[in-house]
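Lecture notes, continued. The same structure-token format from the folding unit now serves as the input rather than the output. Read the line below as a description of shape only.
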């Protein structure tokens, strides 16, 4: 009985040590808040990160960082759905954005869309692999 108890404890410790942490809605919001007023940051994205806009245009990590460097972006997310399989997570939902140029903050643009984001666990850290969004059209 004692051997079984020790074996159970060792097995539980091993599973805990090697299992992937759970990615929750709080994890997603914390990562997005960490970005500040930028949509994405270099520290939070994979080297091969791909951003796909509603018109199909693709941007890499450097291009999106440069593009958002001149903007202030305020994001609000809703209707979040999270699907996790081990160290891979797909997050989808609605995004409401208010975007303004840092040089002219009164020039605002508002955007509402649907998004899908893919995260992967790398070195015990969640990293954004890709982000795709499309215009939100509730009647279609």
């Amino acid at each position: 009985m004692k051997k079984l108890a020790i074996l159970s404890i060792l097995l539980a410790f091993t599973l805990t040590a090697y299992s992937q942490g759970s990615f929750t809605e709080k994890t997603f919001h914390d990562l997005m808040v960490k970005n500040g007023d930028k949509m994405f940051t270099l520290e939070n994205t994979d080297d091969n990160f791909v951003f796909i806009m509603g018109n199909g245009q693709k941007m890499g990590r450097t291009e999106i960082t440069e593009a958002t460097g001149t903007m202030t972006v305020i994001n609000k997310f809703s209707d979040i759905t999270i699907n996790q399989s081990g160290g891979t997570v797909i997050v989808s939902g609605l995004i409401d954005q208010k975007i303004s140029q840092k040089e002219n903050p009164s020039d605002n643009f508002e955007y509402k869309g649907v998004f899908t984001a893919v995260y992967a666990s790398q070195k015990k850290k969640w990293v954004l692999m890709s982000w795709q969004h499309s215009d939100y059209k509730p009647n279609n």
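Point for the exam: The two ends are 62 Å apart (CA to CA).
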